[in-house]
């Protein structure tokens, strides 16, 4: 009888260890600090997703400011994978989408997993839970072709399929770089 109780207790303990270790990425902290080393205010939009044993989810949000000399975590709250698009004004006063090349030792920071995300320059926030979308449906909805009022923006980098990371990325926006207008001009 005592042997059976120990066996059941051992199986329950083993099950809990497996469950906690399998879902451990859901409890990690993923951070991508983007530091503005330029002399112009930069804005960003991020799309993030999270896959875990307990639940999957997605968030897209923007536009948020990173002032010159400041840093900001661009990973939407609670997400583990992220891709980010950046915007600022050039010397002609044109507000445009900019792509920054990421340099550094972070092998997990790559060219964006999603080449474009749909962005509204007036500010927005949507989650997969708002419409009960799967992650695949959520990503499809927020990549081109875009919904009315949203426009495709090129992304700079992504941290995808990684867990428990903290990265710092320096960007150097310059007003001397001419930008294409965002949102894009309508074609006639």
Fold blueprint:
Blueprint: H1 2-23, E1 31-36, E2 42-51, E3 56-66, E4 71-73, E5 81-89, E6 95-98, E7 109-110, E8 116-119, E9 124-127, H2 135-141, E10 151-154, E11 157-159, E12 166-171
Parallel strand pairs: 1-12
Antiparallel strand pairs: 1-4, 2-3, 2-5, 3-9, 5-6, 5-11, 7-11, 8-10
- General shape: globular
**Number of E-state strands:** 12
Give the quaternary arrangement of the chains.
single chain
Averaged pLDDT? 81
Question: How big a fraction of the residues is strand?
Answer: 35-45%
Would you list the SSEs in sequence order as H and E?
HEEEEEEEEEHEEE
Question: What profile does the largest beta sheet have?
Answer: 7 strands, antiparallel
Structural class: alpha+beta
Tally of separate helices: 2
Count of the domains: 1
Distance between the termini: 83 Å
- Residue stretches low in confidence (pLDDT < 50, at least 5 long) are 10-26
The rounded Rg comes to 20 Å
Helical content band: 10-25%
Structure report:
Helices cover 15% and strands 35% of the residues. The protein has 188 residues and is an alpha+beta fold. The protein has one domain. A hairpin with a 5-residue loop joins strand 5 (81-89) and strand 6. It is globular and about 50 Å long. The model is unreliable at 10-26 (pLDDT under 50).
Keywords:
188 residues; alpha+beta; 7-stranded antiparallel β-sheet
Short description:
By secondary structure, the chain is α+β, with helices and mostly antiparallel strands. The protein is built from 2 helices and 12 strands, in the order αβββββββββαβββ. It has one domain.
């Amino acid at each position: 009888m005592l042997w059976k109780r120990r066996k059941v207790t051992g199986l329950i303990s083993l099950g809990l260890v497996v469950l906690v270790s399998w879902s451990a990425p859901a409890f990690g902290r993923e951070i991508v600090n983007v530091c503005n080393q330029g002399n112009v205010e930069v804005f960003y939009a991020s799309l993030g997703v999270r896959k875990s044993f307990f639940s999957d989810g997605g968030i897209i949000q923007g536009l948020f400011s990173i002032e010159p000399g400041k840093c900001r975590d661009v990973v939407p709250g609670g997400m583990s994978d992220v891709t980010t698009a950046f915007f600022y004004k050039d010397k002609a006063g044109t507000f445009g989408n900019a792509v920054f090349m990421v340099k550094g030792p972070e092998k997990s920071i790559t060219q964006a997993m999603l080449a474009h995300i749909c962005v509204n320059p007036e500010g927005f926030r949507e989650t997969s839970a708002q419409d009960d979308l799967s992650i695949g449906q959520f990503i499809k909805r927020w990549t081109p072709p875009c919904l009315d009022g949203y426009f495709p923006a090129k992304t700079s980098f992504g941290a995808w399929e990684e867990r428990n990371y903290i990265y710092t990325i320096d960007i150097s926006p310059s007003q001397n770089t001419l930008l294409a207008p965002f949102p894009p001009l309508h074609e006639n």
